[in-house]
Design brief:
globular, binds zinc ion, 4-stranded antiparallel β-sheet, 11 strands, 299 residues, Rossmann fold, 7-stranded mixed β-sheet, single chain, 10 helices, alpha/beta
């Protein structure tokens, strides 16, 4: 299958998300040569959502256009907020370790990031590599293909490293999403995932679960991964800081005051989050962490 602008590594492994059959390109779409399901193209980006997928109308033309700037958006531009989470050094080392082993730019190796990887940490850690593939349903940024984590449009055993940050809590069926990771990762390949533990209900109503330090390991174990390492991704100071910010937000009655206080508390708690660097290896940090990371290998 050839499509202009589609990375050749993706063209080699792109498959029907329903039956994993091979695809063919015609003028305005892709179609599965096995089950005949059609997938539209947004520009040259495949939208790999089946016809009955609830988000197909949203992503059919690519990323939904930004709505005209509301007073809330204008206020946000006026008072920019810091990135919500601060990543521990151990989580950053785990990502770097996984990338170094997977070698994204080697011709026969494939690394996939679920989503656009817009956070500063990922932009820095991904910067040395040119051939990481981006697949998902992001709010912003660029992806090479639009797809649902529960129905990945990739061939079996085709990926050397699959990265997922803060997506699994927003997936209705996380077991199915991890089963998909187990299907597409090659034997001996790696999966790196970050999932929140103590975060407020967010992206309402599409926020479905949290995992403990033990739960994140057993989630992947159930689908055939063995632990390489796990740890605190953003620690208790991140958790308390963000919970405080979000608590002030929900109890504040009026919208303009809400947004102003949110901007103020965001900056107020931001320095406090860096204290997690001092305690990232303390066992108690796992009891009240904001997020955990998991690095596993497919058996
Ligand atoms: Zn098919």
């Amino acid at each position: 299958m050839t499509l202009p602008d589609l990375p050749s590594k993706l063209a080699n492994i792109l498959a029907c998300p329903l039956c994993h059959g091979p695809l063919q390109a015609s003028d305005e779409k892709l179609f599965c040569t096995t089950c005949a399901q059609e997938y539209p193209l947004a520009g040259n980006t495949p939208v790999m959502l089946p016809a009955d997928h609830p988000l197909l109308p949203v992503f059919r033309e690519g990323l939904p256009p930004l709505p005209p700037l509301s007073w809330k958006g204008k206020l946000r531009q006026l008072i920019p907020e810091p990135e919500p989470r601060v990543w521990t050094r151990s989580s950053q080392r785990a990502i770097a370790r996984a990338l170094a082993e997977a070698r994204p730019d080697d011709p026969d190796r494939v690394v996939v990031n679920l989503g656009a990887g817009v956070e500063r940490v990922f932009q820095q850690l991904f910067a040395p590599y040119r051939q990481i593939l981006y697949i998902g349903l992001p709010h912003s940024g660029h992806v090479d293909a639009f797809a649902d984590a529960q129905l990945m449009p990739l061939a079996d055993d085709s990926v050397d490293l699959f990265l997922s940050s803060s997506v699994l809590e927003h997936v209705r069926n996380p077991e199915q999403a991890v089963e998909e990771m187990a299907r597409i990762v090659r034997p001996d390949g790696l999966v790196y995932a970050e999932i929140p533990f103590l975060r407020a209900f967010h992206m309402v109503p599409n926020d479905f679960q949290r995992y403990t330090y033990s739960g994140i390991e057993t989630l992947f174990e159930r689908h055939g991964f063995s632990l390489v390492e796990k740890g605190v991704c953003s620690g208790p100071f991140n958790a308390w800081g963000l919970l405080f910010r979000d608590f002030v937000f929900v109890i504040t009655p009026t919208r303009p005051l809400k947004m102003t206080l949110r901007a103020i508390t965001s900056w107020l708690v931001h320095p406090f989050k860096y204290l997690d660097h001092l305690f990232e290896n303390a066992s108690w940090a796992t009891y009240q962490a904001c997020n955990f990371y998991y690095l596993g290998r497919k058996k």
